[in-house]
Amino acid sequence: MITGGSGFLGQHVITEMAKHKPKSKIFVPRSNKTDLRVWKNCVKVVKGIDLVIHLAGNVGGIGYNQKIPGALFYDNLIMGTQLLEAARLSGVKKFVAIGTICSYPKFTPIPFREVDLWNGYPEETNAPYGLAKKMLLVQSQAYRQQYGFNAINLLLVNLYGPGDKFDNDRSHVVPALIKKFLVAKQKKSPSVTVWGTGKSTREFLYVEDAARAIALATEKYDNPNPINIGSGMEISIKDLARLTKQLIGYKGKIIWDRTKPNGQPRRSLDVNKARKEFGFFATTKFEIGLKKTIEWYLKNSSL
Q1: Quick check: is 13 in a domain?
Q2: For the residues 162-169, what does the mean pLDDT come to?
Q3: Which tops the pLDDT comparison, 3 or 263?
């Protein structure tokens, strides 16, 4: 079973898992019919399931996190906690929990190493989301210790690629910038305003690479310790904006709104463990992935 299968990452994971030719069918519950915040629904969907890949979540960018932190904490915590407990009770053989680098402390030495995960409080704008996901790691390890339940936890970096969310309320920085520059180009606007100072850095992983990592970990990783899933690159938001502007061919100015938050100062992962444990490394160069994302949006939007 793959939760969140209709989402950005989920669609790619389904495609990737199908390549591995599983002996049994892939079941994908839909959120409009199966609300995983409801206990009885969690019990129902895991019946007869051998493997759970839990991708479902309530997630968005900085503005979205600031707007509804309570809902983000509750929704993500209750979904994960209930689904993991239902899976244990039902005899599921393996549970793959998708975590986030938002769980790392605000000031984490670069590159982020898994051993640093508990050395401080997360960046405030995404702490409720990051901590809710982090509790699934605690639960997974506790269940392994007490019940011998096989649950693993993957810490995913910021994703981007075809199928990403481009709506104004929930988009992350890559789709948000793509949309801003394309709209500005279309309207011949003299400038585009971007949140923060541009000094913060981020690491990005192409969504197809992320799906491949999840499939590899599902097949080969059975360790209780969390593991980073990323590309190992780092780029400032300022350089990201400039590159996006260049690829789109927008000629106006970039204005930085310093009254808006930057988010975590730096993000870059140590990804050696994933390579060592199950042979994963990112293969999509960032500029190529960014071009593919822009092309997909142009083809699928009303611009």
Answers
A1: yes
A2: 86
A3: 3
Catalytically active residues are 129
CA dist list (Å): 177 to 30, 92, 167: 29, 41, 11
What's the domain range around 73?
Answer: 2-161+203-233+266-284
State the Cα–Cα distance between residues 248 and 18, nearest whole angstrom. Answer: 34
166 contacts 297 by C-beta, under 8 angstroms: yes
Helical residues (DSSP H) of the chain, grouped into ranges: 8-19, 39-45, 62-67, 69-90, 127-147, 173-187, 207-220, 237-248, 272-278, 286-300
Q: What is the DSSP letter of 109?
A: P
pLDDT at 88 over 90: yes
- In a domain, residue 67? The reply is yes
User: Is the per-residue pLDDT at 22 higher than 80?
Assistant: no
Domains held by the chain: number = 1
For residue 169, pLDDT beyond 80: no
- CA–CA separation, 164 and 12 (whole Å): 11
Side chain identity at residue 210, one-letter code = A
pLDDT over threshold 90, residue 302: no
CA dihedral 63, 68, 70, 71 (to 10 degrees): -120
Task: Tell me whether residue 219 is in a domain.
Answer: yes
In a domain? residue 68: yes
